[in-house]
Amino acid sequence: MHEIIQYIESYLTSDKTPGAAGNMFWALVYIMLVFAGLSVAVIAMNWLERKILAHMQVRLGPMRVGPHGLLQPIADAIKLLLKEDIMPAEADGFVFWMAPLIVVLAAFTVFVVVPFGPTHAITDMNIGILFMLGVSSLSVLGIVMAGWASNSHYPLIGALRSSAQMVSYEVAMGLAVVSAILMTSLNAEGTGTLSMIGIVQAQQAQGEWFIFKFFPLGLIAFFIFAVAMVAETNRAPFDLAEAESELTAGFHTEYSGFRWSLFFLAEYSAMIAVSSIAVTLWLGGWLRPFPNLLSGSTWDLLFSLFPGVTFLLFAAICFYNTARMPKHPLFRIQTIGLAGFGAVLGVIGLVLFVPAVSVRVQDIFWFSTKVAGFMYLYIWYRGTFPRYRFDQLMRMGWKVLLPMGLGVLILTASVALLQQKIWHP
Amino acid sequence: MTDSNTSLSHLDLETPEKPFLDANELVINMGPQHPATHGVLRVILRLDGEKVLGLECVIGYLHRGVEKIGEHRTYTMFNPYVDRMDYVAAVSNGLGYCETVERLLNVEAPPRAQHVRVILTELNRIASHQLWLGTHALDIGAITPLFYTFRDREEILKIYEKYCGARLTTHAFRIGGLQYETYTGFEKEVKNFLTFFRPKIDEYEELLTTNRIWVERTKNVGTISAEDCIALGVTGPVLRASGVKWDLRKAQPYANYKNFDFEIPTGQNGDTYDRYLVRMAEMRQSVRIIQQAVDALPEGPIMAKVPKVMKPPAGEVYHSIEAPKGELGYFIVSDGSTQPYRLRVRPPSFVNLQALDVMCRGQLVADVVAVIGTLDIVLGEVDR
Amino acid sequence: MAPVATPFFFYLLSGIMLIGGILVITRKNPVHSALALIVTLLAQASIYLMLYAPFVAGVQIILYAGGIMVLFLFVIMLVSIERSMKERQFNSQWVVGMSAATALGGLFIAVYTKGKDIFPDHALSMVEDDNTQKVATMLYGQYMFAFEIASLLLLVAIIGAVVMAKKRI
Questions:
Q1: Cα–Cα distances in Å, from B156 out to B125, B204, C44?
Q2: DSSP labels for A210-221?
Q3: Between A and B, how many residue pairs show a Cβ–Cβ distance under 8 A?
Q4: A225 touching B, CB under 8 A?
Q5: Chains sharing 3 or more CB pairs under 8 A with chain C
Q6: What is the mean pLDDT of chain C?
Q7: Which residue from B141, B144, B208 is facing A243, i.e. has the nearest CB?
């Protein structure tokens, strides 16, 4: 027993990722944690999207299942699992079966290299960012397969649209990424890195998030990526592949039940994945805001309180809404449930105040908070923008973002060279 | 209008365009169960990739034989049926029918009835345009305006409900005037609505008018020239957006529209964006008309002297009004009995739908959806 | 990093590659062939990883599996599959086929027996960490000219494709 505790402790204080330490067992634990966390995030995202969108549209959103519809995603999941699994008679069975698996696999595998903290990653790869882009580009295959195997017009058109869109926006995306990677080479040795952890460490070393680097070059590259990533995940205003007013549901029109929910899962985890790339490359990954400007132990302490305070805030919101629940016997269970949920959040918040915990957790907190900001943007876009037309989308990808990306890349390279050769020889 | 304007020869709707590179053309069936065809319209699209080579509308899925029913009902009994044609503008339908029969009977509704009719009809125009805006924006992918317009349309429906008990198929007017006197506080509620609604139009416009994606999706989409509009018989906001200043409220004043001061908004390009702007401006003009009508609401009787059993003298009459969607005309032939000998409706949606082919040629599939939305058709009226 | 380049993985990946390759030529449905080819390419990327060449593996996934094969699938899906399903898979030119196979096999055996010295008799110890940097230095240093020529060639190909596909520019 004592050995086990010591073993766990020795790992908890280690400064290596499980991959780097070559520790297969901890890698497995991490994989489980990331997978579970991701699933919870997708479920939460489902509820939040419906709720936030509803409030933007002067309605209430889910209110029936659980207090404020908190259990709605679970009810949805159960419904999807119990639904009949329909396969069109003329469909190509094997390909139809494989397509959602490939999409989900691609969407989840990329999280192997996502750095939630300097040690909180399953592993760190020499080619981290390349791995992420490469594996996430494999999801195109799944979409094309799904559209073709359904053997129906609308899914085929939807699949062609979304794969053409993903392939062409990958180009602009890649250029933006390269200009950020170029910035990592601005050190004494002059060697950059593709490793996700290395990129964040480079930002730490240079004392600047890459979004502010060579202002406004970093900002423009970030903007290109931010647009391309929405297109890459087929979300509004680039959700042409599933434009319900034109193509009913696009490539997954013929899918139902569990298979459909796999596509749903993949879409949301892909959104989280591309947001993670954006956060890692431009927004300093796990670094807290102003690590250089507001440094010192006082500031460190203050910022380490943030995770706990956030959870306590959530708990307070829960308690406030518990007090506002209708005082009717029918609502008693819901009221108790909401209060219980608030209590759980509060306890988590209090635990996060323990210094030993907060030191290990605040990296994850800052990373997740930044990603959550992107998730909110996704919902906001969906509530605000009409949908682009396909030719307009392509024009934007090839004629606006691509030249912009090339320009930013060349300018970044020139400025970096000037800085190294002339200003600081 | 000269004859050269009304020729359709240059349109050449018979020969389809050739697909590029002799690729296989794809025939896609859109509807009758399709979310973007606004009901049970079926459109057979012939596509070259995403480009529309031509299309054909198949209608009749909602045909209920309204005109034939009219021949077997007395003039009074038929009145509620017209509400079911354009069900989002039931009040306008009722106004057109009642006025046509009044012409046949040679009676005129008293001034107070006329004023209330104008108020309710213009409210109805606003409600119809709101529904159009919400669904049109939804088709183009903006989901939020739908909820805003429905929230505000609710206020109009509340006024209807208080006035005549119904919200959608109102049956608000009677031949010869009104059945109900306005309820207490009617004027105040209408005025309250106007002050509530004026900033709401700006709110809609804020979401869309300068939205880059909206402009890109609607500018130069579904363009139709004034000549084509006239040749195809297109009326209403679609015609006005092509630059023709033709509004029956001014051109052939009915009810007492000539007493009110308002403008006819027109566009220049005849594209989807102009139609959007025209309808937004029309909502503002409607607010203006209602304001004048409710400020000058006269006292007096609400019903003219009409016989209990209506037997109009033998003869025929055609009367048309400017419904929210265009010219809504009723042609009634009377043989002196209690029932019309022949009743014919000229529905604006049906005639405007003809222009769909012309407007969609050479556009992309996504634009077909936008064009169907911008035509503002109601299938209940197309099929009758 | 613990070595993953064990014989077990090598034989596993080679087996997948071989099965994939055989499926590519035996499947009647071209979409299935393309999918088998993708499996083969992914297995190949994994073998690059075993050779401590992660950059090449990543590029293999992005370019071949994620890019080129998607375009392949595009084209295959848009042509009529019914016709190719009816076509016969193999032709019966046994003599030509056998002689070509024998010649190739002979070549392999000759290379293996005669040129044993070319192959190292043990695994090279390579460093994974700076592999990407090494590729970069090679590509933009020593082989700069070849690299530029290749990119120019690709540019010519792109322009040619545009000219051929577009009726008027």
A1: 10, 17, 67
A2: TTTTTTTHHHHH
A3: 76
A4: no
A5: A
A6: 81
A7: B141
- Say if the Cβ atoms of A386 and B369 lie within 8 Å: no
Count of C-beta atoms within a 10 Å radius of residue C4: 11
**Domain C1-87 CATH class label:** mainly alpha
| Residues C70, A163: C-beta atoms closer than 8 Å | yes
CATH code, domain carrying B230: 1.10.645.10
Give residue limits of the domains in chain A: 23-82, 85-305+353-423
Q: Is the confidence at residue C63, as pLDDT, over 50?
A: yes
Answer whether residue A6 shows pLDDT above 90.
no
pLDDT in tens, A343-387: 999 998 888 888 877 877 888 888 999 999 999 999 998 888 888
Q: Is the ipTM of this complex over 0.85?
A: no
Task: Find the CB nearest A144 among C29, C59, C73.
Answer: C73
Angle, in degrees to the nearest 10, between helices A153-184 and A128-137: 170
Mutate which of C73, C129, C131 to disrupt the A interface (most A C-beta within 10 Å)? Answer: C73
Whether residue B243 lies inside any domain: the answer is: yes
What is the structure's pLDDT at B6?
46
CA atoms A128, A130, A131, A136: torsion sign: positive
Q: Name the residue with tokens 């008027």.
A: C168
Q: Edge-to-edge strand order for the sheet containing B326-334?
A: B315-323, B326-334, B340-346
Is residue B1 one of the residues assigned to a domain? no
| Interface contact A389-B26, CB threshold 8 A | no
Alpha-carbon torsion B103, B311, B348, A386, what sign? Answer: positive
A102 touches chain C (CB under 8 A): no
Distance CA A34, CA B182 (A): 66
Which residue's entry shows tokens 């997708």?
A: A42
A130 to chain C: which residues are within 8 Å by CB?
55, 58-59, 62
Is some CB atom of chain B closer than 8 A to the CB atom of A390? yes
Which of A134, A148, A191 is opposite residue C58, by nearest beta carbon? A134
User: Where in the sequence is the domain holding B302, given as residue range(s)?
Assistant: 73-383
- Amino acid, res. A406: L
Q: What is the pLDDT of residues B30-89, one digit of tens each?
A: 777 776 777 788 888 887 777 788 888 888 888 888 888 888 888 888 888 888 888 888
Where are chain C's structural domains?
1-87, 127-169
Query: How many domains are there within chain B?
Result: 1
Q: What is the pLDDT of residues B310-339, one digit of tens each?
A: 888 888 899 999 888 889 999 999 888 888
